[in-house]
Amino acid sequence: MKQHGMNADFIHLHVIILLLFIFVVLSLTSSTMIFLEWQLKHEPHKLSLRLTLPLYLSIYLSIFLMMQVLQASSSSPHLFIKTPSPLTTTTWGLAPSMSGVKSSSPLFSIHFSQKSQTSIWKSHKSAIFSFVAPPRAASVEVGSSSVSTGTAEDDVLKALSQIIDPDFGTDIVTCGFVKDLQIDKALGEVSFRLELTTPACPIKDVFEQQANEVVAMLPWVKNVKVAMSAQPAKPLFSEQLPAGLQTISNIIAVSSCKGGVGKSTIAVNLAYTLADMGARVGIFDADVYGPSLPTMVSPENRLLEMNAEKRTIIPTEYMGVKLVSFGFAGQGRAIMRGPMVSGVINQLLTTTEWGELDYLVIDMPPGTGDIQLTLCQIVPLTAAVIVTTPQKLSFIDVAKGVRMFSKLKVPCVAVVENMCHFDADGKRYYPFGRGSGSQVVQQFGIPHLFDLPIRPTLSASGDSGMPEVVADPQGEVSKIFQNLGVCVVQQCAKIRQQVSTAVTYDKSMKAIRVKVPNSDEEFFLHPATVRRNDRSAQSVDEWTGEQKLQYTDVPEDIEPEEIRPMGNYAVSITWPDGFSQIAPYDQLQTMERLVDYLLPTIQE
Ligand SMILES: Nc1ncnc2c1ncn2[C@@H]1O[C@H](COP(=O)(O)OP(=O)(O)OP(=O)(O)O)[C@@H](O)[C@H]1O
């Protein structure tokens, strides 16, 4: 009723201005006439242009001012006017309001402030009248079931934007998680879906609860329905991947530099933990010489099947996790040379029909030799987990592993220090000493260290074919793996976000923006410079080093059409002529940068 009552008092702005205009013109004309008549009668000798001119001028000026006001108001019909005292209590609504609207004539400008819902009519920077934009709800008609969906949608999105994703440090609306928003304001019903980056999101229940709560707090909301889902499995990197890997979101390497430190135990238990968190998971046992997977799990089908038509491998499965190992290939233990091993691993991994996976855990062969290096180059690894034991000697081996991943630009997200202690007779023993893991963390800046104690159950479950986290999901070991699982999920999500935003094109600046990893630093490159620095065979002769692409071949105003990450080390840039340039991050770092003072010029 309040809104309705207000509407009854409202008169269109143009009518008021027209009335004011007629009033001013009439009063000025009549006063001029009266004055001229009086002078003609009493002082005809004093009648001069000097006296009458100001009056005529004031008439013309008022006409001009009115025209300006009409022009300003017509460019913003969404206006409410609140006149100054003594009429401040009367608000004339002139048309539905829209905050943030700015309209102007050559002399006046009208601004609407979204925060205060107050706008100021300015003339030469001095306020003449104060305009008040009504609250946005004013657009809802009372007594009608029709709803301004935009407004209700804004309410809901504003409420949801209070929920911050702790991994990205951004609200869930900005992250693009809110999908399929449906609102029936008349019935007070709101439904939407939260599409998270991974089904294993450790705080998905918190998101769901918070989303329910914040929306239910809106005064008009009676019923909230929140559905939870995850983005489809999709690799972050370009589609130049073997077919078998094109539907896997994250590939995690579990690696150690020595055998027997518990790498397979950790890979398998990590995989089943991720599956327990709600993710679709696979394990690839890349150890051809001594595959451990067949003893650690008990799939019904212990032989991999082939799809003869498609020439692909069908993985076997145990408790919902897809498994591929040379040990399931029915070949017995292999005696092969390095390149042959690499070929077998490559074939097993890339020709497997993995289907959609959120995480593929790769149990790497121990060491940092050619086999490991080749594997890391074939597979677009998202992250690596390093397994070590507490001996001082292990540190040297681990350092080798970290360096290998660092060269390949694969982030090491966690170190697991296995067999760090055991408890007996009420005491804790450290049979291999202490401190090697924390030294790795400190020296290489790896953010997370997990201590895994010696537990006979862990060994027994490994031999029994049922991973410990499945056999005893509430036990102490399972808790450690749950923490490791959360760490892996969060770090992968962060890495994906960082990589996908590491190199972008800023259209307004006409510059390629490069974010330096693990820092706030960023720099800008001129697109033409990036294109001219292409080192591919199309631009530079491979044999002679002669420059084929000439400086003038690249237009100064060239703009990239698309920029996509390629592994953790490069981006693929598509140019308007269809050329796809692979630009490694290291190369981008060496190019001539656009300095700050040039950027405003670019903006122009
Ligand atoms: N924390 C632990 N407590 C008790 N036993 C463990 C622990 N970690 C691993 N083991 C046992 O140690 C043995 C070696 O573990 P695992 O096979 O996982 O090591 P690995 O590094 O993968 O070895 P390889 O490189 O030879 O495959 C297994 O029998 C396993 O059950």
Automatic annotation (TrEMBL):
Name of protein: Fe-S cluster assembly factor HCF101, chloroplastic
Protein source organism: Crotalaria pallida
InterPro entries tied to this protein: FSCA_dom_sf (IPR034904), GBBH-like_N (IPR010376), GBBH-like_N_sf (IPR038492), MIP18-like (IPR002744), Mrp-like_CS (IPR000808), Mrp/NBP35_ATP-bd (IPR019591), NUBPL-like (IPR044304), P-loop_NTPase (IPR027417)
Domain MIP18 family-like residues, every copy: 153-226
Stored SUPFAM superfamilies: Fe-S cluster assembly (FSCA) domain-like, P-loop containing nucleoside triphosphate hydrolases
Keyword check for Plastid: yes
Subcellular compartments: Plastid, Chloroplast stroma
GO cellular component, one term: chloroplast stroma
Annotated keywords: ATP-binding, Chloroplast, Iron, Iron-sulfur, Membrane, Metal-binding, Nucleotide-binding, Plastid, Transit peptide, Transmembrane, Transmembrane helix
